[in-house]
Specification:
6 helices, two-stranded parallel ribbon, Protein Binding, DinI Protein, Chain A, 188 residues, 5% strand, mainly alpha
Length: 188
Amino acid sequence: MTDLFDHMAAPATPASAKPSQVRPRSRFAALSAREILLFAGAAATFVWGAWVTKSVAAQGSGQQEFVQLQLQGIIGEYLQAQARSNADEQTAARQTAVFMAALDETVSGLSRSGKVVLVHEAIVGGEVPDVTQSVKTAVYAKVPRPQSVLAQPAQALGAAPQGQAARVEQEMQAFMAANQGRQRDGKP
């Protein structure tokens, strides 16, 4: 836009006054240098943001996989086996700590390989692969499974524990038969 007064003749300057040097402003497409730099910076920021978004979206699309794990079942199974073993309290605590460390290491390995591990109880619906058996196999490859006193051979323990187990089983069956499956207070 031009000003009406821009085209008027300039008043004559006295000869004694020195003309001042006015540098003409450099313009490109009616933009000042500052406006050009701001536009270039905004464009560069936009292009960088688009590149980052594309990189993040491409990285997350094919590399992460959701898997489910029945963690409570694995831990519960181990603790039951440990309770049935003939290990003393300190040994059982030490073995359980080793088992938990191996389990943690195995689950962390799944996470490092790009899998998102969901605890089985957190799955509401949908098809999510179950890795419980492979985790169990990997953990028990590192940590031996506790041996139950009843599962050990008779010659290692003597005949008494198996005889006791058979006797307890017979007593339980006799009790159930006598009470027809009812508990002590008569309720089913």
